[in-house]
Amino acid sequence: MYVIFLIVVTASLVATAAYFSVFGIASMFAYNYIPAMVMGITLEFGKIVVAVYLYRYWNLISRLFKSILMMFLAALMFITSVGIFGFLSQGYQKTSEEYNLLSLELNNLENEFTVKTGRVNEINTQIEQLPAENVMNKIRLSREYGDELAETRDRLVQIEPVIQELRVKRFSYESHIGPISYVARMLGTPQDKVVFFAILMLVFVADPLAITLTIACNMVLIRFWKQAKPRPEDTVKTPAFVNNFVTRARTMAMEAHQGTFKEDRKQTGKARGKAAAAAKAGKKKQQPS
Fold first, then answer.
1. Is 141 inside a domain boundary?
2. pLDDT tens-digit readout, 252-261
3. Sequence-distant (≥ 6) Cβ neighbours of residue 25 within 8 angstroms
4. Would the pTM count as exceeding 0.70?
């Protein structure tokens, strides 16, 4: 049961790391996406094959060939790790850029809303500060600022629902990157730096662990196959007198069979001789005297 569990976990980890690596490499070469993806898949298979080959034939290959294969294995692990890093960082950068653009747009609209609201309050305050008996001046100011007030109020009516919608979207993005921002605030470091080290730790764990589990899986399977084969000490040994008895019985049976076969041949030969003599006698009787 543990062997099956180990195989499933190893295959899942290798497939996940390969998926991240292949799409990460392909995203770095967007203009040649399909060829880059094919190259990434072949590199992943080559990495696994080299690791398994080194484990299985370590004692059969020369030291120079071992060094060459280990160098290629290290280079393949570095390349695939770069692909994983690119895939994970690309996802974070996309979310971060969208969040930054959303925050920038929201801040601009909020500033505009604040300025225009202050302008409306300023105009209303100027009109209200005039004495009650200066009705003509109030009417004059109202007419002077009437167009500006109408335009400003229309703009406020337009941007207010947009601001509410952007706030909801920003809250949704913050819920996605909330743990990262919390860790960044707790450590007192920039958020991008925290994400960089987090992705780096994932890269250092994913690919080496996939190779290690692949080798461990081979070790378990080889041991399992050796245990499944019958061992010489597990075979039942037949006593010597039984083997002698069986040999004698077989010899006697063969001799009896050969004797019966010879006797049958003799009887057959005699019968054929009698038949031939009778045929000759019949021919002589039939000839005229």
1. yes
2. 666 665 555 5
3. 36, 37, 39, 40, 43, 79, 80, 82, 83, 86
4. no
